[in-house]
Amino acid sequence: MDDFEEVRPLGRGAFGEVLLMKQTSTGLFCAVKKLGRATLTAGEEAEHLAEVKALQALQHPCILRYYGSIQSQDSLSLVMEFADSGDLQQLVKQQADSDRLYEVAALLSIFAQLVVAVAHVHAHRVLHRDLKPSNVMVTRGLSCSGLLSVPKVLAISSGRLKLGDFGVAKVLAGTTVMDNMTCVGSPTYMAPEIVSGEPYGAPCDVWSLGVILYELASFKRPFEGRSLGELVMRISSGQFQDIGTHLLEKPSPWDATGQRPLARIDQRARASLDLQCPFLLCFKGRASKKTSGGPTGLPPGLAPDRAMDPAITTHVLNTASGSAAAKVAVRLSRKTGVAPSGDFLWEPVQEGVTDEKGRLGLLEGLKVQRGEVYELIFDVAGYFADQGVECFYPSVKVAFVIQEGHHHVPLLIAPFAYSTYRGC
Q1: Is 34 annotated as a binding residue?
Q2: Span 88-274: which CATH code?
Q3: Where is the Protein kinase domain positioned along the sequence (predicted)?
């Protein structure tokens, strides 16, 4: 640790402390989780090393960046990215204290980043096992006031959520963790199979996401108890109050995203596969001519009656690269079914290229039916290559549902998708 100087303490836990430190050789500020070996059992030290192993494979814009670990005779230190604006629990408390529920756009912006982070974790066969707001860090630019301003929601790349604390993460060897005696995590956010001592797998994280969404939408928790036993009983029963009426706006994102995570394990297995789908959040929108500031909570230019507005591609490119929109190839496909693996099946419908202003000519003259699901794929790989920018993903995928016989879009056009490109 000779290359680091302590700035200030960030927190203290049962096994050690977290310090804000500055690397003198680079000027980088980082959070250092320092554990004293004298107070660690062999099992606790193994958990720390397991966290290191998990983090090494999980480099992602919505996950706290792992810089490295330092071991000495006296301590084990984990060097992580420093999130300079606290955690999601503090953000939610600030919003709750203001006595204003989140707008739909803001709520989905927060939740979608959590979903895409968990999807990445599961893709690497890792379970987090302790998903809760206090384990989600917040970086500069993602503030309570900023989230309430819809245009800033779309410009969220300057600040985002970062999933952290993989201290009890588990690398999966199969589809489930066959250790029904391992009860880890925070009781309020635990899935029924964990509190019941049954084998568990990826759906346990999906359940925790559902609890977090419930809390984001209502500032309440779905399961409460005067004792741990009562809490476990309520979780096991799976009975919770419908919070649709608590939301300021309709349509409610809870209808499509919250009920399924807090469901039986067979249904959550379906939801865990959905985490890996190109579009992660779709809510049941109603056609409206109102834009930003109106009751729909949709960003400017993305009201349902302006579904193919240039704002779609403009926001994708501007937020991804910080520059003006340019020509990008776009492919439109229609969902035809679901494969045995759980992936959606698509058939190509149209292809096109946006003009310099980001405008699209797709869907013109296309015969559609109510309830059909379409996917738009913006091929941005070539665009980023021309700009000399490295990017984790070759395309931006957006989906929408046909309603009322024409192309209304009841989908917030993925602010999390934009944020994953910035600074890649």
Answers
A1: yes
A2: 1.10.510.10
A3: 4-280
Collapsed DSSP state (helix, strand, coil) of residue 411: coil
Q: Which regions of 53-198 does DSSP assign to beta strands (E)? A: 66-71, 75-81, 126-127, 136-138, 161-163, 170-171, 176-177
Q: Where in the chain is the domain with CATH 2.60.40.180?
A: 304-419
pLDDT at residue number 133:
93
| DSSP assigned state of 403 | B
Strands 136-138 and 200-201: unpaired
Q: In the block, which residue shows the tokens 């809390």?
A: 215
Most confident of 146-160, 205-219, 366-380, 385-399: 205-219
Token reading at 153: 């929601």
On the question of pLDDT at 33 being above 60, the answer is yes
Distance of CA 417 to the CA centre of its chain: 10
**Cβ-contact 415, 153 below 8 angstroms:** yes
pTM as predicted: 0.60
Are the beta carbons of 21 and 32 closer than 8 angstroms? yes
Closest CA to 117 of 163, 168, 175, 66: 163
Kindly report the number of other CB atoms within 10 A of residue 135's CB atom.
23
Q: Annotated active-site positions, please?
A: 130
Which CATH fold topology does 304-419 show?
Immunoglobulin-like (2.60.40)
Owner of token pair 């192309």 = 407
pLDDT averaged over every residue in the chain:
65
Q: Is the pLDDT of residue 312 over 80?
A: no
What's phi and psi for 126, nearest 5 deg?
A: -120, 135
Mean pLDDT over 233-246 rounds to 70
* Every domain range in the chain assigned CATH 3.30.200.20: 4-81
Regarding the domain delimited by 4-81, which CATH topology (the fold level of the hierarchy) does it fall under?
Phosphorylase Kinase; domain 1 (3.30.200)
Q: How far is CA 225 from the centre of its chain?
A: 28
Which regions of the chain carry the CATH code 1.10.510.10? 88-274
* Contacts made by residues 348-357, CB under 8 angstroms, sequence distance 24+: 349/374, 353/327, 353/328, 353/329, 354/310, 354/313, 354/325, 354/326, 354/327, 354/328, 354/330, 355/327, 356/325, 356/326, 356/327, 357/310, 357/314, 357/325
Q: Are 396 and 328 in contact (CB under 8 A)?
A: no
Q: Which amino acid is at 408?
A: H
Please state, in angstroms and as integers, the Cα–Cα distance from residue 11 to each residue in 14, 18, 31, 109, 384, following that order. 11, 5, 10, 28, 40
Residue 424, number of CB atoms within 10 A of its CB: 13
Q: What is the DSSP-derived secondary structure letter of residue 390? A: -
